[in-house]
Amino acid sequence: MSSKSNKNTQLVSSGRKKAYTHGVVNPVVQRASTIVFDTVADLKEAAKTRGDKTLFYGRRGTTTHFALQEAITELEGGEGCALYPCGAAAISQVFLSFLKTGDHILMVDNVYEPTRDFCDKILTGLGITTSYYPPTIGAGIKDYIQPNTKVLFLESPGSITMEVQDVPAMVKVANEHNVMTMLDNTYGNGLHYRPLEHGVDISIQAATKYIVGHSDVMMGVAVANKKYWPTLRENSYLLGQCTSADDAYLALRGLRTMGVRLNQHEKAAIEVAKWLEQHELVDHIRHPAFETCPGHEFFKRDFDGSNGLFSFVMKTGNQKAIDEFLDSLEHIKMGFSWGGFESLVTANLTMKGLRSNTGWDLGPVIRLHIGLEDVEDLISDLRQALEVYKQHL
């Protein structure tokens, strides 16, 4: 059920088997560490499944976890879903599930900062090397592949500067060189973008963001195709990954309303972005739905919609102007997450330390997540804050 016409029905219906709900609307919260068995035969039968949708041991999951895994697997169109305590854990543990000493990763250069840090500070110590490639490279990625390249990692749109990648072209090259592909799909969320339908092997999300949607749960998910699911399932278990049943329940609850929330986030963000586009201090908008965003054509081709996250580039600026701008905002709060009901902002004077391969000679970048507040209030907030910014140039 991945067509545009039935995705909201899917969000409401998936993961709600009677085995999970016991006849009520929502899956029950089943907390457990130890599972007890009546007979040796029962224990052996459960062991055969390796805990896949069968009670075996608490770390393998309970019916609450199975309901969430089933719903997200269906949403992303994969074979199975692993749960992790946060998005960064999902990315790091997926890497550790498939990489070994001597392997090489191709990493997009605008990647989420903790992913970069994990590659540079942890994987390097394990003898796993990383090369960073320009986010708009497309099929040119073939020039970056080395004999020991094991993984091509994509993030589309990218963190902060929002470039959209030509995923099908890059996956085609990766397949020709027997390189597995992973994509951080937190922006696309499985509702607006489904990487596995475009040939990606593993789709990863910080479920903390839009799946949960209320800024009160940390969770990561990874959905793999049939080829890689058995390895991901088993190695995630061996690496000790698990989440609480209560958090799984809250993620399921958030999932049910994700469609309507995203519609409002998208509508409001576009309205705010259009207002900013006309402002005298703004150079251009980095919103995938806008032509000024690199890779906009791929967004139009591959995505079903956008959300509340976008950036805008200032014509000029300095750290003092940025700090005063941030401090003067009332409704839009500073914070390092996004995807919740509240509006958030971060700002970067330069991309120093955030890129290795591609330079940045444009102005300061301000990233917004537009929440569910009244748009008029948010625009008014930005208007006065930009006046403060202007006073400090």
Shape: globular
The ordered H/E elements are HHHHEHEHEEHEEEHHHEHEHEEEH
Radius of gyration: 21 Å
Percent strand: 15-25%
Describe this structure in words.
Helices cover 36% and strands 15% of the residues. The protein contains 13 helices and twelve strands. The chain has helices at residues 7-13, 18-21, 40-48, 63-76, 87-98, 113-123, 167-176, 229-238, 245-256, 258-277, 296-302, 319-328, 375-391; strands at residues 80-84, 104-108, 129-133, 149-155, 180-184, 202-206, 220-224, 282-286, 309-314, 333-334, 344-348, 365-369. The strands form two sheets. The chain has a seven-stranded mixed beta sheet, sandwiched between helices. Strand 4, helix 7 (167-176) and strand 5 form a beta-alpha-beta unit. The longest helix is centred in the last third of the chain and has 20 residues, at 258-277. The protein is globular and about 75 Å long.
Compact description:
By secondary structure, the chain is α/β, with parallel strands linked by helices. It contains 13 helices and twelve strands. The protein has helices at 7-13, 18-21, 40-48, 63-76, 87-98, 113-123, 167-176, 229-238, 245-256, 258-277, 296-302, 319-328, 375-391, and strands spanning 80-84, 104-108, 129-133, 149-155, 180-184, 202-206, 220-224, 282-286, 309-314, 333-334, 344-348, 365-369.
